[in-house]
Amino acid sequence: MGDRDSIYGFAALGLDTFPVTDPVEASKKLRQLAEGEYAVVYITEALAAQIPAEIDRYRLAPLPAIIPIPGVSGNTGMGILNVKKSVEQAVGSDIIFNGN
Questions:
Q1: pLDDT of residue 71
Q2: Which is nearest to 68 in space by CA: 90, 96, 38, 46?
Q3: Is residue 99 pLDDT above 80, yes or no?
Q4: Taking a C-beta distance cutoff of 8 angstroms, is the pair 3, 21 a contact?
Q5: Which residues, in sequence order, are bridge partners of residue 25?
Q6: Alpha-carbon gap, residue 69 to 42, rounded angstroms
Q7: Across the chain, what does the average pLDDT equal?
Q8: 4-74 falls under which CATH superfamily?
Q9: Which of 49, 52, 66, 71 could form a disulfide with 44 if both were Cys (CB 3.0 to 4.6 A apart)?
Q10: Which residue has the higher pLDDT, 11 or 81?
């Protein structure tokens, strides 16, 4: 999910792509994908930043895994911050960055 320019290349890999830029539309689409047959949803960091509450609904759920990816505008660092949060939640402390 994300802006067309950022995701159209994934169709060549056989992945389903969903061009979405509007946050309201993105929330609806994410709900639809999560309740459907998708176990992994890749979403551009820019779009994910617009719908954090919707993404948080699925944070503790086993499926789907919602993975932020950089878009054409570049890496915002959101992906690595999500990994850091998940590790902290799993082990109880920041073992990756040691508080940095």
A1: 86
A2: 46
A3: no
A4: yes
A5: none
A6: 6
A7: 85
A8: ATPase, V1 complex, subunit F (3.40.50.10580)
A9: 71
A10: 11
Domain boundaries, the chain: 4-74
Pairing of strands 65-69, 40-44: parallel
DSSP states along 38-98: -SEEEEEHHHHHH-HHHHHTTSSSSS-EEEEE-BTTB--SHHHHHHHHHHHHHHSS-TTTT
- pLDDT for 31: 96
The mean pLDDT value for 73-88 works out to: 67
Sole residue written with tokens 């919707």: 54
Both tokens of 54, joined, read 């919707």
